[in-house]
Design brief:
This protein has 749 residues and is α+β, with helices and mostly antiparallel strands. It has three domains: 2-25 and 37-226 and 271-367, Beta-galactosidase, Chain A, domain 5 (Distorted Sandwich); 384-700, Alpha-Beta Barrel (TIM Barrel), CATH 3.20.20.80; 702-749. The protein contains 13 helices and 45 strands. Strands 9, 10, 11, 12, 13, 15, 16, 19, 20, 25 and 37 form an eleven-stranded antiparallel sheet that branches. Helix 5 (406-418) runs parallel beside helix 6 and helix 8 (526-536) packs parallel to helix 9.
């Protein structure tokens, strides 16, 4: 009966699609239209719970679909969800929990839709609004299966053909494809094929957020999330933490959609990946399509009836509500019509952990063309990343204070060379107009007060002679608020206002106000701005650029030609390629889409944003992705709360030594203690010598494993069998008959 019913709904879907009354629309990169309407207090209308059997998997209902590599795919004939079996271990991973207890806050579903109309927000799910109504259908496909959910608030509407849906009634139809390939499972929804009643807006969809969900977990089980450099959340029974729910926004919040009403803590994710370890098995999930509009949500079980789980939500339509609770304006903009797709890789035994997840993620990113296939070559010396603070901005964008001019930069490099720091990446910050609060890119020229062309050439010649590299720090997508007209040059948000952000001023007390405010650049102008800048810098001899802002911020733009975030990803990747032509490229922070053309990543996160706890802690996931492909450094050690710990973390995570200095005293005690070079150069040289001995010949190696071996002691392993033991304790420790001194790193070949 289900099969015949399924065929009927496939035919109805085809007929409905051919009439195409209201498909989700607008391109991924341009052409969006803003609509706004006044609404009252927004009411949430949720699906009515039907029966537990539709929300929980039962192995006896599984039907075999196919096999690829060491995994087999099954279809649940009761829930219309899927399950994956590891054929070598027998481990089952279910898309819905396989323990029949209703969750206390949400009932598990394969797909959840959030749909708005006027002052109502409807939350439909595949289980209560389709499967329970017998309006779900399936279709076998090569190496997989396709499942369609025709959803509505009641069975009568859900059972309609799309063209027969009464006006004003809510109906939605979404199809999920599950495909096996190369030993992996890919789940995909084409947002352009989603059918939705006229007058309704699909704000977001959640897909497979209960995949692998655990009500009870072993003591060594955990969830991996993309917080900072990467984080592990242990989920065993009896473990407690400060957060039951965490949100990770891929590439950070879209500032064009900023809403004062959003008080939830949200953390940027630099790579759209997550995973879970269960016993001797694990999975790694990578969002391959729709990453720019995705969020990753993690929940930790609070006890019986709730589940530790992690999964993605995709923003389909840009929407913002503003105003008071009972008098709001709902604005809508771009609708994403591309695919949303998640690839699941399954790991067993010694690979079932965050190290194995990182290896699987790295392989996928390289295969997908996101990361480069290159391998770093061997050199005699480990590079030292020095950020030179050249000038600090005052409140007037045309005024600044010199901290290190060209001649002083040259003198500083000579002093470092005299202390046997034989390889230096020099990142010059504050050279352009606006100093460290740079103006509009195309109008940015080197500050004349830093010295003459002859002084710059002398610096550049020394850098070249010593085989150092010099990077010009550059903001390509933002500009100082007073340096150019926002009406002409600033991106606009969904509310029609210029979009900007504010950061702390590192030299407050010496120059400028406590914070520095910047506008984001109109994306339709970016290609021309970058080209003009490149042409204007042709007479300057330097190794490359350091892109300061585009590795941290990603936004849509509603000024002129509208750009979605997905379109912005493609645009920024193209600008990185343009800036790297004939030059080396450094990127700050490292949103993953910016790194294919990057030779160096500066300020790569080395910790988490959410507070670390006993059961929630940082792991070097990003570092394991990048090691051997690109150089990377953490935030300068001298800007850390604990510089000694930061230096040791550099060794543990295989990063370049990094400092940020100025040559001139500011006569501000706290600033000079932090940035004045003469206070730190001798100790930094000693630390560099140690780092060079430990890491110099590992630059092209892959970081294959990392683990905590005992309290305060961590082991990092490379593919050439080198082990590094880092001891953060204030006493010596013995590991495997090897003694590691306090606050030190020991290498074992």
């Amino acid at each position: 009966m289900r099969n015949a019913n399924g065929l009927k709904h496939v035919l109805r879907r085809v007929l409905g699609a051919s009439l195409a009354v209201t498909l989700l629309l607008t391109g991924c990169s341009a052409g969006g239209k803003i609509t706004s309407q006044k609404i009252g207090m927004r009411e949430t209308v949720s699906a009515e719970f039907t029966a537990q059997k539709y929300h929980f998997a039962d192995r006896k209902n599984l039907v075999y679909v196919g096999t690829s590599g060491l995994i087999s795919l099954y279809f649940d004939s009761e829930t219309y969800a899927v399950a994956v079996e590891e054929t070598n271990t027998g481990k089952m991973w279910y898309a819905l929990p396989n323990t029949a207890e209703s969750a206390d806050t949400v009932d598990p579903a394969a797909v959840t839709l959030r749909i708005s109309c006027a002052d109502k927000l409807y939350i439909l799910n595949s289980q209560d609004n389709a499967v329970a109504f017998e309006t779900a259908s399936f279709k076998p496909m090569e190496n997989g299966i396709q499942v369609t959910y025709d959803m509505a608030l009641d069975k009568e509407i859900a059972d309609c053909a799309y063209s027969d849906v009464p006006e004003g009634s809510l109906y939605a139809s979404v199809t999920v494809s599950y495909i096996l390939s190369d030993g992996a499972l890919r789940a995909k929804i084409n947002c352009g094929d989603i059918l939705l009643s006229k007058g309704f807006t699909l704000e977001s969809l959640t897909m497979l957020d209960f995949f692998g969900a655990a009500e009870k977990a072993g003591t060594e089980d955990y969830i991996f999330v993309p917080d900072g450099c990467g984080a592990v959340e242990k989920i065993g029974e009896g473990l407690t933490g400060g957060y039951e729910h965490r949100t990770f926004v891929t590439y950070g919040d879209d500032l064009s959609l900023a809403s004062a009403e959003n008080t939830e803590q949200r953390v940027p994710a630099r790579v759209p990946a997550y995973g879970m370890k269960s016993g001797s098995s694990a999975f790694l999930a990578l969002i391959e399509n729709g990453d720019a509009v995705s969020e990753i949500h993690e929940y930790v079980s609070k006890g019986a009836g709730s589940y530790s789980r992690v999964g993605p939500t995709f923003r389909v339509t840009d929407t913002v509500c503003s105003g008071t609770a009972d008098r709001q304006i709902l604005r809508t903009g771009n609708t994403y019509t591309g695919d949303v797709a998640v690839c699941y890789r399954f790991l067993a035994d010694k690979n079932a952990g965050y190290s194995g997840m990182a290896a699987a993620c790295r392989e996928l990113l390289i295969r997908n063309g996101v990361l480069s296939t290159k391998t770093l070559g061997q050199t005699e010396y480990l590079p030292f990343l020095l950020t030179v603070q050249n000038a600090a901005a005052k409140n007037n964008p045309k005024h600044s204070e010199v901290l290190t001019d060209y001649s002083q930069t040259l003198e500083l490099l000579k002093l470092m060379k005299a202390k046997s720091i034989n390889s230096i990446y020099v990142r010059c910050n504050g050279i352009l107009d606006g100093a460290n609060n740079q103006g509009l890119l195309s109008e940015s020229e080197p500050l004349k007060k830093l010295g003459s062309q002859k002084d710059f050439d002398a610096l550049a010649q020394y850098v070249k002679t010593q085989q150092f590299q010099m990077y010009l720090n550059t903001d390509i997508i933002s500009f100082q608020k007073k340096s150019a007209s926002p009406a002409r040059h600033a991106a606009k948000g969904l509310d029609g206002k210029a979009v900007g952000y504010t950061t702390d001023n590192p030299f407050f007390g010496f120059a400028g106000r406590e914070t520095q405010s910047r506008y984001l650049t109109r994306l339709s102008d970016l290609d021309g701005l970058v080209n003009d800048f490149i042409v204007g810098m042709q007479d300057r001899d330097f190794s490359g650029y350091c892109i300061d802002d585009a590795g941290r911020y990603l936004y849509s733009d509603y000024a002129g030609d509208t750009f979605s975030r997905t379109g912005a990803v493609n645009l920024l990747s193209a600008q990185a390629a343009a800036l790297s032509a004939g030059h080396t490229l450094m990127v700050d922070t490292g949103n993953i889409y910016m790194l294919k053309n990057a030779d160096v990543v500066a300020d790569l996160p080395s910790s988490t944003v959410y507070p670390q706890e006993e059961n929630y802690f940082a792991v070097p996931f990003l570092q394991m992705l990048l090691h051997g492909i690109a150089e990377y450094a953490h935030a300068p050690a001298n800007t850390s709360e604990n510089p000694e710990t930061a230096v040791l973390r550099t060794l543990e995570y295989g990063a370049l030594p990094s400092y940020s200095w100025c040559f001139t005293k500011t006569n501000t005690e706290t600033l000079d203690a932090c940035f004045y070079y003469d206070n730190q150069i001798t100790k930094a040289a000693e630390q560099y010598t140690n780092a060079n001995e430990l890491l110099s010949d590992l630059r092209g190696a892959r970081m294959t494993a990392h683990e905590k071996v005992q309290d305060g002691v961590y082991k990092t392993e490379y593919n050439n069998s080198v082990l590094l033991y880092c001891n953060y304790n204030d006493t010596a420790v013995t590991v495997n008959s090897i003694t590691v001194e306090p606050m030190s790193c020991l290498r074992v070949n």
